[in-house]
Amino acid sequence: MRILQPADWSKPRGFSHGVAVEAPGRWIVLAGQTGGDGRADYPPDMAEQVGVALKRIIRLLAEAGAGPEHIVRLTWYLTSRSEYEAAGAGIGSAWRETIGKNFPPSTLLYIDGLVDARAKVEIEVTAFVPA
Asked: What percentage of the chain exceeds 90 in pLDDT?
């Protein structure tokens, strides 16, 4: 994968503007993962929910023989701008613990709510594993 970064653009922090994939391989598309655990319990904190969602993503990628380095796109659905901004340090820590130094293209959307009212975040993933 080649990161798309025009030389005259400022480098974004925590994501990439785009990637180009020119190789045979397979695509992995994950449904949105929330911060609920296997018993459908949700921690009250936004950063903790992001951490749970990211761990769920890593587990699903592993099921497909992939890892965080194969993620080519994330779409985040968040229920609160203020909670997201306040949780920055915790989200950064959860990111480093699960995704590491991979910063794929990401889109963040603030929405009124998710299907489970306790959910504060849902993250969709597209990944590509070269042949």
From this structure: 79
Task: Tell which residue, 76, 66, 74, has the closest CA to residue 130.
Answer: 66
Tokens of 16: 């990439």
Contact 77, 111 (CB under 8 A): yes
Instruction: Please provide the size of the chain in residues.
Output: 131
Short-list 110, 121, 131, 130, CA closest to 43: 121
Structure tokens at 114: 């998710």
Provide the whole-model pTM.
Answer: 0.88
Q: What is the CATH number of domain 23-130?
A: 3.30.1330.40
| Residue ranges covered by each domain of the chain | 23-130
Return the H-helix or E-strand segment holding 127: strand 121-130
Q: How far apart are CA 40 and CA 126, in angstroms?
A: 24
